[in-house]
Amino acid sequence: MLLPLLASLAIAVALTQVATFSTTIYLHRCATHRSLTLHPAVAWLFRFALWITTGLSTKEWVAVHRKHHAFTDEDGDPHSPRLKGFWPVQLGNVFLYVREAHNAETVARYARDIEVDRWDRWLFNHGLVGPVVGTAALCAVIGVGWGLLAAGLHGVTYVFFLSSSINGLCHSRGYRTFDNTATNIRWLALITGGEGLHNNHHGFPRSPKFSLGAGEIDPSWPIIQLLTRVKLARPSQTIERVLRAQQADHHSIETL
Q1: Tens digits of per-residue pLDDT, 94-153?
Q2: Alpha-carbon torsion 47, 20, 104, 115, what sign?
Q3: Most distant pair of Cα atoms in the chain: their distance
Q4: Which alpha helices (DSSP H) does the chain contain, by range?
Q5: In angstroms, what is the C-alpha Rg of the chain?
Q6: Phi/psi of residue 17, each to 5°?
Q7: Contact 175, 184 (CB under 8 A)
Q8: How far is residue 248's CA from residue 12's CA, in Å, rounded to a whole number?
């Protein structure tokens, strides 16, 4: 009994982290902000991982998040705790997301550059199918009860804690390095692939690296660096490079 239980917990953690890293590296940094270009094969693997663990649609996710940046904590933000209250966002973020993702005007306006290819039409845009296939595969491998337990724990953790905390906690608690309404939470960054460094991200949305100060860790950055070394990714300028360039420009102006 103990061994299957531990195996189910380990699988749930693994599934949640696969979904988390796929979300932050592919959906967020690559597709939404274009801070990272991925080799098509790598991008496909991330898309498949997202489909089978979350059922998320790239076009819809990109549209909702871009609208969030366009109206951060102002009227129009799909999931601002300043407007809707902390707990409605922290506990109900998934419902706010689904409502906005089904807004055809939002998708058409904010994700017009996201192409729907044959894989989307045949597979990835059938959101409910992915998690069902993934859960069925788990049940076939480790048994129905343990498979349902692992899938359920993963789903609850990803949807109602990790994802919602970026829009809830990271706009309500934590510290700020840059002048925007998002916040950084170091411990949350460790379990969300770096997403908990949300203030840094809002300060420099085009940076593929979210960490900056001492003690800040972006777990996705080493993965991006590895992909870059083997020619499977091409990141744009990081926060540090942008800040150094700004400081150099400022120094040049002062010396004129």
Answers
A1: 999 999 999 999 999 999 999 999 999 999 999 899 999 999 999 999 999 999 999 999
A2: negative
A3: 74
A4: 2-22, 40-53, 58-70, 81-84, 86-101, 104-110, 118-119, 129-142, 144-157, 164-167, 186-191, 198-203, 220-229, 239-255
A5: 19
A6: -70, -35
A7: yes
A8: 47
What are residue 235's DSSP bridge partners?
A: 36
Alpha carbons 178 and 202: distance in angstroms, whole number: 8
pLDDT tens digits, 211-252: 998 899 999 999 999 999 999 999 987 777 777 665 544 443
pTM higher than 0.90: yes
- Which helix (DSSP H) or strand (DSSP E) does residue 205 occupy? none
The 3-state DSSP class for residue 192 equals: coil
- Residue 175: count other Cβ atoms within 10 Å of its Cβ: 10
The number of residues making up the chain comes to: 256
Distance CA 54, CA 66 (A): 20
Is residue 225 within 8 Å of 198, Cβ to Cβ? no
Do residues 149 and 68 make contact, with C-beta atoms less than 8 angstroms apart?
no
The answer to whether 89 and 77 have CB atoms below 8 angstroms apart is no
Kindly report the backbone phi and psi dihedral angles of residue 233, in degrees, each rounded to the nearest multiple of 5, phi listed first.
-150, 155
Q: What are phi and psi of 105, to 5 degrees?
A: -65, -40
Contact indicator for 128, 98 with CB cutoff of 8 Å? no
CA distance linking residue 212 with residue 217, whole number of Å: 8
Q: Could you give the CA distance from residue 126 to residue 221 in angstroms, rounded to a whole number?
A: 30
